[in-house]
Write a structure and sequence with these properties.
Blueprint: H1 5-17, H2 20-27, H3 31-45, E1 50-52, E2 57-59, H4 61-84, E3 92-98, H5 103-106, H6 109-117, E4 121-127, H7 134-137, E5 141-145, E6 153-157, E7 164-168, H8 170-176, E8 190-193, E9 204-208, E10 211-215, E11 221-223, H9 226-234, E12 239-243, H10 244-253, E13 257-259, E14 270-275, H11 282-297
Parallel strand pairs: 3-4, 3-5, 8-11, 8-12
Antiparallel strand pairs: 1-2, 5-14, 6-14, 7-12, 7-13, 9-10
Helix pairs in contact: 1-2, 1-3, 1-4, 2-3
Length: 298
């Protein structure tokens, strides 16, 4: 069959939202139109692409193959068309997947400034620490620490080098003392982090004499909520661990104290990253330029 780009776009939306209703909302059409479009695509190909039930939508094996094959090329075509028709300010939906610890992006001013400068762009930010395939997930860009970004991506610095810190409230230190070495943490009450249920808690990472090592602190409190970690530490509930940038306000005020600093060297910071392609959509180009300006100004 001759390819119908609109039907492929419908299929891509269904594949990436796992929902006819969500796909319809994203495309600005009715659920019935999406259902009929997928049926026409299946009829033309002579193969089922989607398995439907009253509660869920998932791809068949043929659907998964088609999704893998068309996702990137179709976005390249759409970017080229958008660029060719670029006769005004950038516009459209821009989807970004951001790590929950990327404080510089999530703190508010960067996003507020971007929204003010580009009223035609709808910015959809998903905060997640799960491993992410930007193309398969339907995202235009992501924000992650440099060490986890694939080498085939284009990466634009969002921050300078970052550093982890172990922190506790003065009240906790007065009551329990401060560890002199990371291995002493096993004797302290610690507040740990895990990205999601069923995932092992994050092991605290240190360095001594140029050699990296980890400490399994067997945290008494573990959560996936950075705010709970912070609030528990501020209340004297124990020692917690995270990026210095996330705790800087309370370190400066004296409400938290940094510990074990000699064992925590800096490392590459956060980057805005996106797939390399010849035709970069104006909406993505606008975000890249905004991030560059924001970093210089900050």
């Amino acid at each position: 069959m001759a390819p119908d780009l609109n039907l492929l776009r419908m299929f891509l939306a269904v594949a990436e939202t796992a929902s006819f209703r969500a796909a319809a909302d994203a495309l600005g059409v009715t659920r019935s139109a999406v259902s009929q479009g997928i049926r026409r695509l299946e009829d033309g190909l002579g193969v089922a692409l989607v398995q439907r039930s009253t509660r869920s939508v998932r791809l068949t094996e043929a659907g998964e193959r088609l999704h893998r094959q068309v996702a990137a090329p179709l976005r390249t075509v759409d970017a080229a068309l958008e660029d060719a028709l670029d006769d005004g300010p950038p516009r459209g939906l821009l989807r970004v997947n951001v790590s929950s610890i990327a404080e510089r992006f999530l703190s508010g001013p960067l996003v507020a400034g971007f929204a003010e400068a580009h009223p035609g762009i709808t910015l959809d930010v998903t905060v997640s620490d799960d491993p992410i395939d930007l193309v398969a997930g339907g995202f235009d860009a992501g924000v992650r620490l440099g060490e986890v970004i694939e080498q085939d991506m284009v990466a634009v610095p969002l921050t300078g080098p970052q550093r982890q810190v172990a922190v506790a409230a003065p009240a906790y230190i007065d009551a329990h003392g401060a560890p002199a070495h990371p291995r002493e943490l096993v004797r302290h009450r610690c507040i740990g982090w895990r990205p999601a249920p069923g995932v092992m808690p994050y092991r605290w990472e240190f360095s001594e004499h140029g050699r990296d090592f980890e400490v399994d602190v067997a945290a008494q409190v573990t959560t996936n909520d950075l705010r709970l970690m912070l609030r528990t530490a501020l209340a004297g509930g124990g020692i917690t661990f995270g990026l210095e940038e996330n705790y800087r306000r309370w370190l400066q005020s004296g409400e938290l104290v940094a510990l074990l600093e000699d064992y925590l060297p800096p490392f590459d910071g956060f980057f805005l990253y996106y797939p390399s392609r010849h035709n970069q959509p104006p909406k993505l180009r606008a975000l890249v330029e905004h991030v560059r300006r924001f970093r210089v100004a900050g």
